[in-house]
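Researcher: Structure prediction, please.
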Amino acid sequence: MALLRTRAKAIALADEADRRELARVLAARMEREEGRAPGESEVASWAESLPALGRELEAAGLGDVPILIEQRMPASSRRADVVLAGTHPVSGEPSYVVIELKQWSRVTPIQGSEELFLVPGMRNHPQLHPLVQAVGYRDHLTGDLEVLHGCEDRVEAIAYLHNAQDAGVAPLLESAHGGRQRVFTRQTTSELHTYLRQRLAPESGEQAADLLESSPFRFSPAVLERAADVLAGRHDYVLVDGQRTAYELVRRAVDSGMSGSSREVVIVSGGPGAGKTVVALSLLADMAKQGRSTALVAASGAVTDTLRHYLRAADSRLETLVRSVNDIERAAADSFDLLVCDEAQRLRDEPGWRSATGWRPGKNGVRALCRAAKSVVFLLDDDQAVRPSDAGSVESIRRMAEAEGRIVRRVRLDGQFRCGGSAAYGSWVRDLLGFGGRSPQPWRPDSSFRVRVADSPWEMEQILAAEQGEGHRTRIAAGYCWPWSHPRRDGSLVPDVTIRDWHRPWNVRSTRPLLGLPPSTLWATAPGGEGQIGCIYTAQGLEYEWGGVILGPDYVFGDSGWQGRPEGSADDVVKRADTRESFEQYVRNAYQVLLTRATRGIVLHSTDARTHSLIRQLVSGDR
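Model: Predicted structure follows.
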């Protein structure tokens, strides 16, 4: 869905007041739909770039063509600047053009990359080639919308730099991405007119716009389920925006490491569902395809075992691409060209200690990876550290990597590729849980992601059973607020999670199957996991279509807002956090993880009456 659908001639605005009003309307709609206000630069670009494009469309005789502004990608929060929808002048079929708009007038190429550039006013941050951006959006649309499946030739992608002369952006035009054919400047507007007239008839194309906006999504399998196809070269993930920037920075770092010119670390950070694992697997696949020595190291046992499970089932040879931190600690120096560390916030920094037999050296995951590989990429989220031993923050990794003599580069991912792509839901969760002093806000129903409240665990199970009947994978996870018993002698699980008259077991404790039930690390993905309750340690880094989340007595809402209650926790490690504030941080992070595992919808319940009443009031509009 676009923020605004209109005609090209409606945005061909010359008056400054009209341009400001267009930007104001778009800003208000973005804040309503995504729960965030756009930045000043984004608002300024709407006021300048959109009217500039509108005037060129009118000059080309295409003023009646429907224009979809800030068109959202399927199951993602990312948006294309503009999609033109119309009818092809020859075939009469629907025809679309994705356009990336830039106000740039000058660029400087970054050595070793044809996709990254430096742009004045962008604080020396690498910027992605605008045509690469547009192509990424095109590929998302053609890959994920039913109406475009098998009709990829109906969608084109271009970039328009309305402030630029050719000389100022020559590196873009001369890149290997067909720049001169599909990157247009203020100097080549006549070529732009010709290009568009060859793809769009002057008549209104409202039917084509309707088809695009009403098309169902083609929901993809979970990221790790596709891993074997990606690593075997049978499928490629589509990387957009920051994902592509991160990928290109790492590829460039690997080349530098191989040549010996520099040894680099790239830190990729982003919230839940930001697309970090997709970047990790894309790098792993492409480096392996090029014959580079590479491996993925997941600092989460559940992610490691789940990935190995899928790879083993497809081709046991692929399993060797996944290593544990312990494997890396035993590796010789520079054994790998690239190590990819996902869930890096879970890395540990254990000090050395003196035993009866002598001094035992400590273990440091960051140091071990840096010593074992010429180049390393760490993918993490500071707000997903859930135990005192989780030592892999952006700052600590930067500090330790620099101590190892590494050049450190950073990329922040801000997209949302889980939770139906709903940026509004991600923002709502952070408001709900009180991140950064934020206050809970009412949930505005979003067609891309459902939020429901169950007044009992029984009702939660009923809702999820209905979704399971529709073929959706469902799981219930809870705060770690009940004991986790070992199985009985007959192998049956103890129903530890008790809420009034409702009793269910935690997932299997062992990393081996038990009586047909999946091991702990495969609870989120293997058949049979829906019968047990998962926790932060078996859910983190994984996803399923519908989730239930039970908030326990360790995190409740009171007169002064959210309160962490160590006495309500059964997690002996987290309960021993240095301060109550630290305990609250770990518990808040854990609930954010649990609340962002689902791709289609979530069901909430709190065991605390006041907290549950708050959630019920906030979600009253989504049933």
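Model: The CA atoms of residues 445 and 622 lie 6 Å apart.
Researcher: Thanks, that helps.
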